[in-house]
């Protein structure tokens, strides 16, 4: 199965490099998606541009692909399910949740000159980064590029309720499946509260398992693809 891989904020498609070999060995075709504005110098990119790149990958896939969204890109993966409910075999959300309709995509940190830079590791103290040593932090931070405000402050719009029928696997790295169930049950994640097929998978890692636990993450993604 084609597995489309969408990295979260500040990262380009190379974020998935260490995940690709295991996915290939397990019989799947991993397809990292390059998002406009994240590593390609497109400072004027918008959320619509990023969604267009994801949908182009969906439309170009062999059969029905599995769409994987990491962190904030969980929203992009879910937007793909909304735009192509008949084409997407399933969605995997890694350490992130879809934003609610009508809210900003990822307006988390103050922008500078039209770009939202990586705020530094102090913003991710605790479980998010506990599994990254200093070398891993330096390497990951060096690859991060500021995200255009046209992306981070883009407004999320859903249009097709058939998205709720698309199977979802929520991978829980720096939080537990129990935490996620609680948040969803409390109404904090309205999109997933209406999902008809929602599975939870715990993964012992921080927020960037493609860096700290790439083989383990690959096996989780392969299992989700096999389940489709």
From TrEMBL:
Coiled coil spans: none
Protein name (database record): Alpha/beta hydrolase
Taxonomic source organism: Modestobacter versicolor
Residue ranges occupied by any AB hydrolase-1 domain in the UniProt entry: 3-219
UniProt keyword annotation of Nuclease present: no
Family matches, as InterPro entries: AB_hydrolase_1 (IPR000073), AB_hydrolase_fold (IPR029058), Sec-Metab_Biosynth_Hydrolase (IPR052897)
Keywords annotated in UniProt: Hydrolase
GO molecular-function terms, A-Z: hydrolase activity
